[in-house]
């Protein structure tokens, strides 16, 4: 029996595993192998790891946690049963404890005293021809992750509604040559004046295609066939949490539709914790890892003391 079974082996899951392994807990990480940032060639903003390919970070992390005795299981969780389980707890054989039985897609079922879910989110992209093949390279979402690499280039912002205006003003900090593509949305007079004051061009026609050549972005095509040359495009995907497991366990959700956790990562279901993008759409790689480290420390404290001694 594991003390903690972590579902999801990205930066959040591996960071939690590192903390728990160093706390001498028996830990397993089950990872289905679908990292959100797989299309990206490099990650940024992670102190000491800036520019490192995401796959390299995962490989380094897996080696580190394995060195602390953490089991790494490449599989998919297909079901969880909550209830009394029998196993070895703190050296005592056949002790009965509330816990979880976790069914895997290929391997044998596992048992654990606690679950920590770090399955992240997926990006649902705008349904525009040519956009998806460039995702993670010349079509991106986060200026803090990719803005520096495309600074002073002809940039585009694909975003409708008032939030598109704010994003265009933000992106202009990386390039004065910024065009806002509203894809049919008409900004109001105040927003148009604000954009004009910043020197940001506005294209309100429907975007019909993203044009590439040699695997690189070349232009954004508008209704009627007009091409607006651009070399990078900031799009606005819909963030969809990969939280099916948490919902199946009955975890409460917030008004905005995300699983609710307290300040240290506990869900409404006893013994079930969550961290990273699965509960926080705004977290980047380093903040996901940091949040998961805090959650792991508090989880270990609860295991040791039976309850957290501090308000959470």
TrEMBL record:
Coiled coil: none
GO molecular function terms attached to this record: thioredoxin-disulfide reductase (NADPH) activity
Keyword list, A-Z: Flavoprotein, Oxidoreductase
Residue ranges of every copy of the FAD/NAD(P)-binding domain listed in the record: 2-292
Reactions the enzyme catalyzes: [thioredoxin]-dithiol + NADP(+) = [thioredoxin]-disulfide + NADPH + H(+)
InterPro entries: FAD/NAD-bd_sf (IPR036188), FAD/NAD-binding_dom (IPR023753), Ferredoxin-NADP_redctase_2 (IPR050097)
Name by which UniProt lists this protein: Thioredoxin reductase
Organism: Actinophytocola xinjiangensis
